[in-house]
Amino acid sequence: MVLALRMLSCMRRPARAGRRRFLNGLRVPSGANKGLRDSPFFLEFMADILTVAQQALLGFDVELVDVERAPLGLLRVVIDRPEGVRIEDCEQVSRQLSHVFEVENIDYKRLEVSSPGVDRPLRRLADYVRFAGERIELRLHEPVESRKTFTGILRASGDEPPVLSLDWEDQSGQTRTLPFSFDDVDRARLDPVLDFKGKKR
Description:
By secondary structure, the chain is an alpha+beta fold. Helix content is 22%, strand content 33%. The chain has helices at residues 34-37, 40-56, 87-103, 125-130; strands at residues 9-12, 22-23, 26-27, 63-70, 74-80, 110-114, 135-144, 147-156, 164-169, 175-180, 185-190. Helix 2 (40-56) packs across helix 3 (87-103). The chain is elongated, with a radius of gyration of 19 Å.
């Protein structure tokens, strides 16, 4: 069974408490606060987890979308596949990552593997090309016309690298085009308009 709209997930606890993970002599706590999440060593720590997860899933027919720390020791892994994520995909990935994270001494209390849902984050430049023509919510690092967040239709050219832009409506209802680069983006996610049945319009 494939879930398209509701996020599919499965949870797993580590078989035993792993040893603490250190970076530069400091242990990174599972429930990191915002200040810690923005620190260079925490970003390095998360990049390390992402690399380990990518390597662990090379033989799997899934795409690794995201890895994030959440409160109470939760480590959340988001996967996707063109035909939709199945429950067996989550179970297989969960078993594989549980084993690899234990070997790599990555500290966590619970592991959640899930599909991205309809509001999938856009993490890579390739995501912007793949989802060109879709409605997204875009947040920039620096404000444009006194605002950082825009919602509209994503555009990507066929150039290499692709030229990115967003068609959005201002307060008067006029459609405007916002050019931006991948480096300008703080975060972005799909933002489809759903009808009352949960279907994209």
